[in-house]
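Folds abound. A case:
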Amino acid sequence: MHTEKVTARRLTAEEIAELGIQDAIFVSAGMDGLPLDCYAPAFLTGPGKNFEGGSFAARTVFGEEIHVLPGDSEDAGIWIADKTGEEIEVLQSAGVLLNLALFVPAGNKESLDSLYSSARDAFGAGVVQRWSEEVVAVPDVKVDLYEEPAKARKNNSQNRDRRALDIYPTRVRFLEPSEGWKFVVEPHKEIVDDTPTI
């Protein structure tokens, strides 16, 4: 987690009401109920004058939506950069969360454990974690993937577009057809070029 010291001052509800959605502010960097003792760059989700009841909503640059009660002394409040203010810690980056689906040829428990320990060695034991694990047997075959219009006549391969050849069926699960088209999956056939050569 990378933070940077910024000089800023806390705003009152009246000052926040004068802000627009383009004004850069800082709000609590806590996310999903996890309190962090620093702030995150953010923007109001709507002009300050549109909020009622003393509560303001802001979205951080990390995609978290925060509701703030600036009149509450227990609340972290909304801050704006100001050279006459005080120093606060601002979160600049917090890494990237990757959700991975891995295909392991001839995968067994030993190979999965080896892959897991290698990833922990590369990125750190506290970084790489298994959140959920679904072991799905994948036949060692490949398929050819085509697209054709969703309302095409049957057995009419003239209106077919090649999307991908020689791919694993599991990859097809993560692809989406073009709008108005549907997928046709067939067992992989080697393309034989019969063009005569001289």
Remarks:
- The mean pLDDT is 81.
- The longest helix spans residues 109-123.
- The CA atoms of residues 99 and 132 lie 10 Å apart.
- The radius of gyration is 27 Å.
